[in-house]
Amino acid sequence: MNNTTLKQIASQLGISITTVSKALKGYSDVSEKTKKAVIELANKLNYTPNSFAVNLRTKESKTIGLIIPTLVHDFFSNVIQGILEEAEKRDYLVIILQSNEKLEFEKKQIDLLLNKRVDGILISLSNETGEFEHLQTILSHNTPLVLFDKIAKLVNCSKVTINDRKAAYDAVSYLIKKGYKKIAHFRGSYLPQNSIDRFLGYKKALEDNNIIYDSSLVYVCDTNMDFENGYENAKKIVNEHPEIDAIFAVTDLVAVGIIKYFNEVGIAIPQKIAVLGFSNWFMSSVMSPKLSTVDQPGFEIGRKSASILFDEINLKKNNSPVIFQSIELETSIIERDST
Amino acid sequence: MNNTTLKQIASQLGISITTVSKALKGYSDVSEKTKKAVIELANKLNYTPNSFAVNLRTKESKTIGLIIPTLVHDFFSNVIQGILEEAEKRDYLVIILQSNEKLEFEKKQIDLLLNKRVDGILISLSNETGEFEHLQTILSHNTPLVLFDKIAKLVNCSKVTINDRKAAYDAVSYLIKKGYKKIAHFRGSYLPQNSIDRFLGYKKALEDNNIIYDSSLVYVCDTNMDFENGYENAKKIVNEHPEIDAIFAVTDLVAVGIIKYFNEVGIAIPQKIAVLGFSNWFMSSVMSPKLSTVDQPGFEIGRKSASILFDEINLKKNNSPVIFQSIELETSIIERDST
């Protein structure tokens, strides 16, 4: 009954299409009796308004697009939950795409979303993304865009992040205050702004505390920044730099890899080497030892990004001017057993 | 430039709309020179075909809907990855909704997707879902539907699951073979078919091995089946049944809660009590002790469900008959340190 149209209802009842349409919209110039008959038949025939036709008229899709680097990541799961909660409130639907940290995928997905005429787009950039023409395309379509978490500072749109540099600075200052002196950093790859900022925060905290920055204590993870990166770099560093007493890891997943290696070879955490993560994944609270980490408010980042996007969609609809916002959400250090 | 239409291109070039449309589609009865001019202007104006109008013509949305109970769950993240991979191959988009284990949300979300005229729907039911009228609505709209993981046996559509009863039977038989005799079960809530089946597999394995089934060793988790359920029930059972030597948990998350409690109070795993999970979350391989579990192939479940759905969408498009499939994917036991 997918193709039931107003026409079929009209012809079965022997009335005009206009009358059927008015009856379904509850217009007062149609008799109650006719209304009842139309609604009953529409229900019987499983009539639903054709959203393509409705969209063509209103030029609204009531749909937004979301591109994230990867789903298998507590942080992004939390972000999505925040976004879905805001969308739900407004009866908006969310198309979710995963770039797998690939610039090529991100470009293609933006094309798909623009072709679909979504009302707005939310993106956390892939770790490979170092050029921004595809983002400019969104803006030149006059489609509202909000970047979150992994953003491009040069793109002129609203942004929701944490202050990665300050969060890392606070984290490393905390380690120094706890008495650690030889602090290594397992950093993220060179492109994403947040991995650059976390590195700069690390470096600044050392300098401000009169600890000489030693570039040989900085190990670079690849674009995936995953568990294996932590595991392999941990193996390397205890060999190359047995003198270190703490490691600040760019993500919890990397920190979990470090802990796994240290547990396997019997390096005591935190007595021999302390480990500090970043993000506060669920697993970091249940492993042994429980991981100290920086709490990154994923759910709030999702909610805030979506709510700004919906505001911009509405402003655009009313032809009102949009002022782009750059929001930085607060982070905090969660002290557990690994430091 | 959102509203650039064929008409604008036609009027700027002083040709007919039909010619513009033909030029963009590459028809041979339009000169190369005209084609070039049209394409250049279309690019300059950021023209994209209006998907609402295209949809109205083709009656295809190139979009499918996916409803899952919760995102913050490794298993569903893996399922989504499998679905997105299949959709990507076919240039389909996926609208993802989260029922939060609530029947009311599931109903509303189905209405939204039907109104959106998605080409097909994939659902893993909420733990609350005990009536199926909303699923019948999908079928009466002649919209292809595939249920996966948490299914309703009575609904007439394709289904992709594992054999939960057999997987649980194998898991408990494995524990018995390892010498455990007093095996408790932390089961899921009463509604979802997979939690019923896992319970029945547990019971049958005991009976087939001449161990008398004792209903007081079965603890029921609430609809969330989460970490806290495992933690709280673990606390209860060591008090009420100190004689148990193993626990078979309905999910890894519940098992992680058990392990956390046992670690806190110093109950040795597996020497005093063994713990076996179900699902093989990432975290189960990195915690201490590493959790033995049943591997549930989430990615494959996602891929298979999506690929059946796309087949049915195509069959429907060609007016070919659809034969519903019920696929059961294989599981295996992953032995680690907790058993």
Describe it:
The structure is a homodimer of 339-residue chains. By secondary structure, chain A is an alpha/beta fold. Chain A folds into three domains: 44 residues, no CATH class; 136 residues, Response regulator (Rossmann fold); 132 residues, Response regulator (Rossmann fold, 3-Layer(aba) Sandwich), CATH 3.40.50. In chain A, the strands form three sheets. A six-stranded parallel sheet of chain A has the order 2-1-3-4-5-11, with helices on both faces. In chain A, helix 5 links the parallel strand 1 and strand 2. In chain A, helix 5 runs parallel beside helix 12 and helix 8 runs parallel beside helix 9. At the A-B interface, helix 4, helix 5, strand 2, helix 6 and helix 11 of A face helix 4, helix 5, strand 2, helix 6 and helix 11 of B.
Strand-helix topology:
The structure is a homodimer of 339-residue chains.
Chain A lengths: L5 H8 L3 H9 L6 H13 L6 H8 L4 E6 L5 H16 L3 E6 L4 H13 L4 E4 L9 H8 L4 E4 L9 E5 L1 H14 L5 E5 L5 H16 L9 E3 L6 H14 L5 E4 L2 H14 L8 E3 L16 E3 L2 H20 L8 E4 L2 E3 L5
Helix pairs in contact in A: 1-2, 5-12, 8-9, 10-11
